[in-house]
Amino acid sequence: MKWKQQLDGMQAYKPGKPIEEVQREFGLQEVVKLASNENPFGCSPKVTAYLQDNAVNHAIYPDGYAQNLRTAVANYLGVKETQLLFGNGSDDIITILTRALLYPGVNTIMADPSFSQYWHNADIEGAEVRKIPCINGAHDLNAMAAAIDDKTSIVWVCSPNNPTGVVIADNDLRAFLAKVPSDVLVVLDEAYIEYVTHPEHKNTLPLIEEYPNVLLMRTFSKAYGLASFRVGYAIGQPEVIAKLDPVRAPFNNTILSQTVAAIALSDQDYLQACCEANEKGKKQYVEFCEKHNLTYYPSDTNFIFLNTNADSDIVFHELMKRGFIIRSGNALGTPGFIRVTIGTEAQNEALLGHLETVLKEQG
Ligand code: PMP
């Protein structure tokens, strides 16, 4: 068959190990997954109540334009409805962007380490990938700007960055954007924005007015606790959105996902409570790292990226045997590090107890 040459030897995305697989493999009843930065408290109780009380006709196609959700998000953010593009998770937005803007002969720039889907999708499209190493978990924005040339099509800026957790301060971001040519799209991936508490991080929405080549990308998968429903969205200038919309698959959000995302958005009190609990949970990890002299990056997310000073694949495996799934830095190209999603207070305490034992064993 006439496969795209780029697919030669390409592997599918490997998400964190599924809970059921670990239960089977290690004969464990209870397994906690702190590997994919989901909300450990789940979604708003208003969503749960809706799901229990309402039967939905799944035989009909959903609204391809996600009108009700669009209106809810536009009102919440104070943007025009034409400034929004909805995706089947922000993964889908990434696919749409790469299909629309990347092809052999152009290049795309991203930090390293950062979210793997940027380069994975760029590879599929045959574009050149320019990975710019992070400095202490932060984007090296000067080097990223310097890497831009007339063949650059997309620059990916992940703030806060996955897997490091580091957010970009407003001044740094603006200084960077001022250097980017106006025909290069800057995608600001803000999957974890709800968790940000950094005092120098400001509202990023005005950036799309100041820099029409900026596209913000957000999701209901993280703080809103709706990962399984697959709803992500982009916010940009209407002209940018209008170019991307024809690339989108026709019915890329289900009826139920559109509805529950709008309900979750309406429950900002719950979101706030989750973010506050996350801050407390993060302190448990920070205290642990300080007690054990382990390097960690300042996280503005619901995960922490820390250096175990051990083989992170072994740490990953040992924690899994004890019923906790995390991410090994080896899989993310950062050996020694692990990425742990902040769980509930009890989950964090239990995991840190095990981590202490495992690290002692590793000497
Ligand atoms: N961007 C970043 C930075 C992420 O960490 C993730 C999920 N791991 C995504 C995008 C994709 O999220 P989703 O497709 O669930 O919206």
From TrEMBL:
The keyword Electron transport does not apply. InterPro entries: Aminotrans_II_pyridoxalP_BS (IPR001917), Aminotransferase_I/II_large (IPR004839), HisP_aminotrans (IPR005861), HistidinolP_aminotransfase (IPR050106), PyrdxlP-dep_Trfase (IPR015424), PyrdxlP-dep_Trfase_major (IPR015421), PyrdxlP-dep_Trfase_small (IPR015422). GO terms for molecular function: histidinol-phosphate transaminase activity. Pathway: Amino-acid biosynthesis; L-histidine biosynthesis; L-histidine from 5-phospho-alpha-D-ribose 1-diphosphate: step 7/9. It holds the Pfam family Aminotran_1_2. It is an enzyme of class 2 (transferase). Residues 30-355 form the Aminotransferase class I/classII large domain. SUPFAM superfamilies: PLP-dependent transferases. Keywords: Amino-acid biosynthesis, Aminotransferase, Histidine biosynthesis, Pyridoxal phosphate, Transferase. It catalyses: L-histidinol phosphate + 2-oxoglutarate = 3-(imidazol-4-yl)-2-oxopropyl phosphate + L-glutamate. The keyword Transmembrane helix does not apply. Its EC number is 2.6.1.9. It comes from the Bacteria. Homodimer. Belongs to the class-II pyridoxal-phosphate-dependent aminotransferase family. Histidinol-phosphate aminotransferase subfamily. This is Histidinol-phosphate aminotransferase. The gene is hisC.
